[in-house]
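Field reference: "sequence" (input) and "structure" (output). Example, Hydrogenase 3 maturation protease:
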Amino acid sequence: MKKALLTIGNTLRGDDGVTTYLGHLVEKEKIGWNVFYGDDTPESQFHALRAFSPDVIVVADAMTGINVGSVEVIDISDDRDYMYSTHNLPMPILLSYLRGFCGVVLFLGLNVDIEKVLEINPSLSEEAQATARRALIKMLEIDAIFDEQMIS
């Protein structure tokens, strides 16, 4: 099974770079996911994702407005009012496009403190690093679900 992680975030905006850190953790742990770093323009990775032709894509982005430090798989496929992201990217449209060539697309929200994404800051807080480690555990759980489906 081919699995892709698309990270979205700006590493110059402090904790907004939490998913880039998650991507590095996924690569370091060698858990079988190809990482695509979308930074501020995730659409720049669409061609590479399409060429990779994954069976599953997890789109990870920093979020605000929910419990700081939590990691959630959220269904926002029909939520046209979605504004939890730290970006103005219309996430339902992005996910809809990805579903055009990949049957399983999940959104993984990593909840960060909005105060730590508002200014130029190239460092990631300890809190965000801990959130990324929790997200790695969530990625392993997602991985186990798909591995189990492959065996069935």
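The two ends are 14 Å apart (CA to CA).
Residues 126-151 form the longest helix (26 residues).
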